[in-house]
Amino acid sequence: MTHAQDKSSMLSQGVFIFVYLAVLTGLEFFVAVSFNSVALLVVVAIVKAVLVVYYYMHVYQLNAEHEGEEDSYEYKSGTNRLGLWLFLISDSFVFGGLLVMRINLLGLTRPDLNQLLGLAVTSVLLISSFFMNRGETMMHNGDRKGFLLNTAMTFLMGLGFLLGVVLLEWRLAIHEGMTPDSGPAGAAFFMMTGMHAFHVFTGLIILAIIWINGRRGLYDEKNYPIEAAAVYWHFVDVVWIFFYPALYLIGALA
Amino acid sequence: MRKTNPVRSGLLLLVLGGVVGYGIGLGIDVLVSRALNFSGSVPSAFALLLSVTAFFFGLYGYRGITRGLVWQVAGTLIGAFLITGIRAAIGRTDIFGSFFFSEPAWVFGALAGVVSFTFGVGAVDDWMKWARGIDTPEHHEDMPGWEKYFYVSLDHKVIGVQYTATALFLIAVGGTFALIFRTELAASQLQFLTTTFRLFNQTGPQLYNTLMSLHGILMIISILLGVSGIINYAVPLLLGASDMAFPRMNAFAYWVAVPASVLMLMSLVLGGFDTGWTGYPPLSARAPVGMQMFFLGVFTAGWSSILGALNVIATILRMRAKGMTAMRLPIFVWASVATSIIALTATQLIGLSFQLVMFQRLFGMGFFDAAKGGNPVLFQHLFWFYSHPAVYVFVLPGLGVISELLPVFVRKPLFGYRWIAMSSLGIALVGFVVWAHHMFTSGMNEYLRVPFMYSTLLVAVPTGVKFFSWVATIWGGKIETPTPMLFVLGAIIVFLLGGITGPPNAAIALDLHLHDTYWIVGHFHDTIFGGFVFPFFAAIYYWYPKATGRRMSEFWGKVHFWLMTPSFLVLTFGMMFIGLRGMRRRIVDYDPLLGFDSTHLILTICAFGIALSVLIFFINFFYSMTKGEKAEGNLWNSRSPEWQVPSPMPAHNYEVPFEVVGEPYDYGLPGSKYIEFLAVKSKKH
Q: In whole angstroms, how large is the CA radius of gyration of chain A?
């Protein structure tokens, strides 16, 4: 449990994990441009996902001992946590299905996309996860101001990612002649980014809700909503950890 | 006190709304297409929407479900006009389509209608308050009497009854559709669904296809709702919980299924669809707008299924009574876990596959369009990844009901409790890796066939475990045969027939002949009747006194059973008989020279026999609510906790919590005890 640990150690843990994620993303990009080993890319993506799931999404809390009566807030939060994770398992089957679709239709080819823009939006989303983790930890430590600042940063970077994909990336792709109805590459690209962007959009709404309620002084005691919003946000990040290599890095240009 | 009879005023307004809606639709149709077409889709669509809404208005006034339906109609129209306006603004020439609105306008409107319904009915009120930082009480008080069933209630028992009633309604609708096309099939040649016949913009054979497809999907949705109904009602009671883990999501999961049902009926009037319930492209990429309503309806019903399953798993993991360890769970709860694991995960894939076809139609994205580099077989993989495990969603709770009720009526311990519990999970898990046995003739990669054949045959192992356990449980028991037990025994026999006709289909060589014949139709009706319909009726007869405090008539229950079972057996035997000899499924007509006329006539008569028996059930069901014999005690002499307290169940279940102190099914063992009520009073919620 977070309360039992040193307050600053949780924050520095968040920084370390972020550094690992950044290095792995760089490694991923390097692998893709130098010798493009699919197996290695998959391994790196899995390692990144495990880091986020364990350290940012605190999956181990599902196993925590819950003290108190069945009516207590702790016990109910435990039930809510389980419900959220079940939802994420369910949701990941959609994204799994989309990956299957991409592999079936495109095989070991990839659409011709702007690599720098892809790396940029990926970095923005990863950094937003870092800020989300920071905001959540600060609220646990009772630092409301820090929570509001970091959640606002998360929101802005999430918005940046969304606009980067929908306004810049989509427009560039259409400009290059890859429209939704041009062929399997376009269909897969727009479907996958679109479904992910929809989840980012819902995540932004949730972030706005906890930011506004946090500013009005809620979540002093009952702060499970913040954890829920954070876990959902990190989940959206985990999805992109797989979608980024699937769309930008794996295979040769069609 | 209301003077007028609400049902009568509801029916009056149903007719009135239908006539007015038809008139409005006809007027719009004439304005747009400049031709008078009495059998067109637009008048029917308006008549449908207005009459259903008006019926509930008369029944219930402007609240609860009526408000939801009004909002759905308004949301549909606003959404459709919005898209129409946008199309006009960007200068498209095809602002209107052949069904008044263009296809994108209908799709967006229908989606907006579903969302509006959930807001209108009040299923998301508390969540909206939470988002604004307002706390709401844990429970809401329900209205007394029947009115609470048309309103958003958080009580799992009310929601269970709502699910069951909706399931029964859809069974009636889907069954009526079956009777219509079964009547056409009674003799070769076209009798009344002829090519000159016109209804809802469809010719007779087209309408046959639509009714056949809708029969399939309405029955599937009604099964999903029926399963949710039993689980919702029974699981918290069996666990000793005061409610489900997430009562609001439970209510939402039910209420979102109502607009989904409306969309299904919309698909009938908006040109229908002729793909069968499987919706394979490329045909589904070309079918009328009704196809999109079907996709969206299934998509929406899928939310219901997913959220319901999530709730069940969380409830079972977190809200068990003291001492209820994994191996002391009621067996029905184990079946619910297994079924929920499938519904939670695999349902997403049917949603995704249908969504991809919808997008292919709306945006020209060529996922399954071979001309654009797509792959139609991919659809079948995604679709069957859900739709095969889905049949285990249908049958596992039913098999759970059999195992749950059998020991009660043979007064003997359940044989091999652990094996039954694990076999449910086994069926669920094996079920995930058998989907491609539906695709042996689809042209998929050849090397996939044999592994899928073996994995399919493997399903027979855990299913066989269940049969051995049931037989061993019955062996040497003191068998009593009240109506629920009759249906349990019927279920075992019918499901056995469904089970042993399965492995032949799994064998590739045989399947190449059997694929798409009436053999398959007979086979799956056997499995679904044995795995769901019979146990569902058993569960209703069994738990009806718990819900109402009265029991259903034994005599008419037995008439129901003895009329339905032989009719059904002859029906499916006949189907398999002509199927083996080459009768294709999903066709409106057949060659008289095949010599199937007399068999088809018998099948039609049997279908009407089943319909009559279900009608008897319905009358018994409604009559017994007020006039049935009082049954407030432990009617079946069961050990299960819910029967140890008086019926009907109080609003928040057990006033005094209980502790599990023994094995659940030790019937007939002297001195054995399953539960013990604790001395302390529980806290009031």
A: 19
> Which value does ipTM take for this structure?
0.94
Asked if B310 lies within 8 A of A86 by C-beta distance, the reply is yes
Containing structural domain, residue A157: 7-253
Looking at this protein, which amino acid is placed at residue B311? N
- Residue B82 has a CB neighbour count (10 Å cut-off) of 14
Q: Is residue A1 part of a domain?
A: no
User: pLDDT, tens digit, for every residue of B540-555?
Assistant: 999 999 999 999 999 9
Cis preceding linkage at B282, omega within 30: yes
CATH of the domain at A84: 1.20.120.80
Q: How many domains does chain A have?
A: 1
Contacts of A190 in chain B (CB under 8 A): 363, 365
Of B348, B364, B381, the CB nearest to A180: B364
CA distance linking residue B372 with residue A232, whole number of Å: 35
Q: Is the pLDDT of residue B682 over 80?
A: no
Within a domain: A2: no
- pLDDT per position as a tens digit, B30-44: 887 777 878 778 888
- The secondary element (H helix, E strand) that includes residue B660 is strand B658-660
Q: What is the mean pLDDT of residues B409-417?
A: 94
Alpha-carbon distances, residue B53 vs A237, B43, B58, B59, B60 (angstroms): 43, 15, 9, 10, 10
- Which residues of A fall within a CB distance of 8 Å from B374? 105, 184, 187
**Which residue among B360, B372, B381 places its CB closest to the CB of A183?**
B372
Any CB–CB contact under 8 A between A111 and chain B? no
pTM for this prediction:
0.94
